[in-house]
Design goal:
Radius of gyration: 23 Å
Number of strands: 14
Helix content: 10-25%
Largest sheet: 8 strands, antiparallel
Shape: globular
Order of helices and strands: HEEEEEEEEEEEEEEH
Number of helices: 2
Strand content: 35-45%
Oligomer: single chain
Length: 214
């Protein structure tokens, strides 16, 4: 009986143990290239990413610094709508207490955002990571890549009053740098299924013999 239970545990562990990895990254924590969010009427910025395989999101990394106003930001993963960020918010984080940065050419603090919704990113599907300033009177620094590694960065909002109005413009000359990590949402390997099936069959036989002896 002990051996049978051990086989069941090993089968379950083998079927479910999947290693986390990088889904997308053009992120360099040591980079001192920064863009400005909120200045010049750009209250939102987004860059696209695509997962090559179906993955369950584990975390997102971005580098942000507060320039002026409220030291906060909203980070979201959005769907794609014909080449621009869509209206469906798939995951969202509200950040507060972002460190104040004086001067734009320096390394920004890294924010690690953990997934709380078990979001599954489908393989071959485009998604957008977007950052929004907290209000029209605040500005943020974000780490960027110039020229962009990402071919489709866009900025959003009304250039006259610095508020986001749901529209996106682009592509732009610099991309938002970030990293998306996840765990493969894969089916158990055939060997794992075979081991689990054998263990269950053995358990069924054991129970049948026990019932006949009673």
């Amino acid at each position: 009986m002990t051996k049978l239970l051990l086989a069941l545990n090993l089968a379950a562990l083998s079927a479910t143990s999947l290693s986390a990895g990088v889904i997308f990254s053009d992120f360099s924590p040591a980079s001192n290239n920064v863009g400005t969010l909120g200045s010049g009427g750009r209250p939102a910025w987004a860059s696209a990413f695509t997962s090559s395989d179906t993955e369950q999101l584990s975390q997102v990394k971005v580098a942000l610094g507060s320039l002026s106003g409220t030291a906060a930001a909203t980070v979201q993963i959005l769907n794609d709508a014909s080449g621009v960020p869509g209206a469906s918010v798939l995951e969202s984080w509200s950040l507060t207490g972002i460190p104040t940065i004086s001067g734009g050419t320096q390394t920004l603090p890294v924010e690690t955002l953990l997934d709380a919704t078990n979001l599954v990113l489908n393989g071959g599907t485009k998604y957008w990571l977007a950052i929004f300033q907290p209000d029209s009177g605040s500005s943020l620094y974000f780490q960027d890549t110039t020229p962009p590694n990402n071919p489709s960065p866009v900025f959003g909002g009304n250039p006259l009053n610095g508020t986001f109005n749901g529209t996106w413009t682009g592509p732009f000359a610099a991309s938002l740098s970030f990293e998306v990590d996840g765990t493969p949402a894969a089916a158990p390997e055939p060997a794992s299924l075979a081991l689990l099936g054998s263990a269950l069959a053995g358990l069924g036989g054991l129970l049948a013999r026990k019932n006949r002896s009673n």
